[in-house]
Amino acid sequence: MLLTPALLAFAAALLLLTAVWAVHLGDEDASIVDPVWGPAIVLVGLTNALAAGASLRGARLLLLLCAAAWALRLAWHLARRHAATGEDRRYRKMREARGERWWWQSLFVVFWLQAALAWVVALPLLVGGLGASGVGLLGSFGFSLFAVGFGFECVADGQLARFKARSESAGRVLDTGLWRLSRHPNYFGEALLWWGLGLVALDLGTGASAWWALLGPAALTFLLLRVSGVVMTEADITDRRPEYKEYVQRTNAFLPGPPRSG
Questions:
Q1: Using CA atoms, how far apart are residues 179 and 156, in angstroms rounded to an integer?
Q2: Looking at the whole model, is its pTM more than 0.90?
Q3: What percent of the chain has pLDDT over 70?
Q4: What ranges do the domains of the chain cover?
């Protein structure tokens, strides 16, 4: 019985991302998928709960609302960035490399891939949304981690947006505020908040299946560290910002910490 709601949730994510893919065919700018990433994750959790007939109340509802707050804030932030900067250079390189095949290959390598990853990251919502409605100590700690991570990400993104808005910042490196402690404090905040939601789901879930909830934040952390986050962001940043090499030498990549001297 639990498999059917999960499959319906995956189908909902596929339908949403397929619709976004169809819109993208107008100008083939796949960057429009980024603001939809967060809402797709929430859609997975909501569809799963509704399909299973779960009552959205108590900690189950709060878990979904936390994810929704994260998704809406991130969607707004990424939509504003896309409006200001246009096509993301990562997607542009992919499009240029595939040429005329891009229009149909993008459905698989970008949009359906994002749908599959959204389902995996949403595992805390899949598990917690069908669990208990009351929260214990572990769940309370998880909600606290979410609040800290959410605040960390919001502040980091706000500091970066204000830095980029200043004309004198062109070609420079932001190394103040949270960016003094980590080269990617926004990614750290995002990972932290999802580990918090994972702990909430672990607390709400029942049996050995509850541990599946932690696979979601683990997958997201891997993506941020090794795939679409730190590695991809820093691939050519030294060419665009010469100061970045020195910044790397004194600043942690992910976990916040005091700058290294020398």
A1: 7
A2: yes
A3: 98
A4: 3-250
